[in-house]
Predict the structure.
Amino acid sequence: MALADGSTLGIALSGGGFRATLFGLGSLWRLNDAGLLGRLDRVTSVSGGSILAGVLASRWRDLQFADGKASNFETVVVKPVQDFCAQTADIEAGILGWITPFRSAGDYLCRHYQDALFGDMKMHDLPPRAHNLTPLFVFYATNMQTGRSFRFRQDFMADYRLGVNETDNLLLATAVTASSAFPPIFSPVEITTNPNAWHDQKWGDDADMLARLRGKIVLADGGIYDNMGLESLNESIRLVSDAGAPFSIDESLRNDYFSQLGRVRDILIDQTRGLRKRQLIDDFMLQRQRGAYWGIDTAIDDYAVGGKLAVDSITTGKLESMRTRLARVDPDQQGRLINWAYALADAALRAPQRANLSVSPALALPRPEFPLQ
């Protein structure tokens, strides 16, 4: 849905395990209170952010909007997300995938998503884009064969090298699993599709190879390619909720090959993420692009706005060091992650010469029983 000035609004929900799911929840909560949730044109997501986006997409029809704000957001979205993040998802799925022949950890994770959140809902069951009253939901995975971003949407799936497939209709749980299948435990996730259902490929003339790559697709966590989910966020106003863990110094790096390879991987991913982030923020600061960015390690004092809901503290600093896992998060940590994202989003949306959305200051944190100081 376009805003009053004709602009379109999109948000990217980053990866980062349950840390990202809950941080993104606080971000969406602030958008809802500002009357912006119902005006979103696109929601892109990666990994832990895709869990949240899946809940929002699957329950969009249940939200009761008035002037862009859903009066039942807490019941329809917040409660199921917090309940889900109060359970550990990765240990059981990982162990069962290791000891069970012919089934992977990704298969068990997908079953967990089905049982706890999505049931047998398929991508084409999500609300369509009729009259632009529903956002376009884009769930990112990484195609390990083509090395490109793989996109699941409610209307099709796509890969730059493979083309577009509007026919095959996979489970929403499968899309979320592929998006959050971080290696080496939950990846790869393999999906099969009809090679003849694809079109508009950018591969070339090798038809036999193209058919094989379209028939059996090997996917892993979307954060391998782009942990912020920016690839197709092309709305005129771009909002980014980033709960990716800051890169850490390792003083005790071991000399074995596997430790070195893992460290090289982390450095390469951090460099790519850093380049994307710097370009994005430069575009905002130089007014080449309207939008707002807030990250879990952002200093809230950097936003030159009054009436901020929080200050940088030891408590907020500890949130960024939370493990990147799909493991149970205690109620107090859940509340603080939600509050911190809400406070940062509030400041970022009101920062001068960035999003220019005329958002009024929020009056209170959504979970006041969990202070940030």
